[in-house]
Amino acid sequence: MATVVFRDVRKAFGSVEVLHGVSFDIEEGEFVVLVGPSGCGKSTLLRLLAGLEHITSGDIMIGERVVNALPPKERDIAMVFQNYALYPHLTVGENMGFSLTLANRPKAEIAEKVGPAAEILGLSNLLDRYPRQLSGGQRQRVAMGRAIVRDPQVFLFDEPLSNLDAKLRVSMRAEVKNLHQRLRTTTVYVTHDQIEAMTMADKIVVMQDGIVEQIGAPLELYDSPANLFVAGFIGSPA
Ligand code: ADP
Ligand code: MG
């Protein structure tokens, strides 16, 4: 687990700046939801934290370390995407352990990590199946399992549920939260769905057009929105 700090983070693609000085702190073990309309810069901020894009100016810290120049591998972060691509020719267990296989970890160690992760996610009796034999929700769990086995300091989720149907989305929200309650890993969860933000977050960061409009607990934002944008965005159903 670790704290995460964004300090006046700016990001430009060519001459176009898309993040205009974003600053906020995430406490150790906190579940923070980044919410805002499509195109406001949520994924870019996550990708900067993961090291998949270079920061233009400002600082990002994970724990005590400024990670601006660190390659993704050295940041101790695991990311779950919207389009979770599982390897079709690998079993559930092999998919979950794949990053450890790549890192040449011994088989016994991989099994030791995959077993408990599968148990947490209710996948223990599916370890020998192939992705095509799984439901959408089960596949999503395998994608989370891949992240868990790495035992990262920070979990990043980028709209992980947006490909699922409405009913499954609701139950998966609860599963992600259960997972967090068990592991207490610092988590940054991106969504454009207000309900998801309100029901899942310890703390919500509301973004619009590359800036942070307000940060607070769900009820704080609901009761005392800082401006009309936040009021409209948080207050109105999707
Ligand atoms: P969100 O995840 O909130 O929908 P993004 O972070 O994906 O928003 O995008 C923020 C802005 O940055 C958008 O205007 C998008 O078009 C732009 N953008 C994102 N990635 C790139 C890129 N690789 N090159 C140029 N522009 C990009
Ligand atoms: Mg996005």
Automatic annotation (TrEMBL):
Signal peptide: none annotated. The keyword DNA damage does not apply. The lineage of its organism: Bacteria, Pseudomonadati, Pseudomonadota, Alphaproteobacteria, Rhodobacterales. It comes from Pikeienuella piscinae. GO terms for cellular component: ATP-binding cassette (ABC) transporter complex, substrate-binding subunit-containing. This is sn-glycerol-3-phosphate ABC transporter ATP-binding protein UgpC. Belongs to the ABC transporter superfamily. Keywords: ATP-binding, Nucleotide-binding, Transport. Residues 4-234 form the ABC transporter domain. One of its GO terms (biological process) is carbohydrate transport. The chain holds residues 1 to 238 of 354 of the full protein. The keyword Nucleotide-binding applies. One of its GO terms (molecular function) is ATP binding.
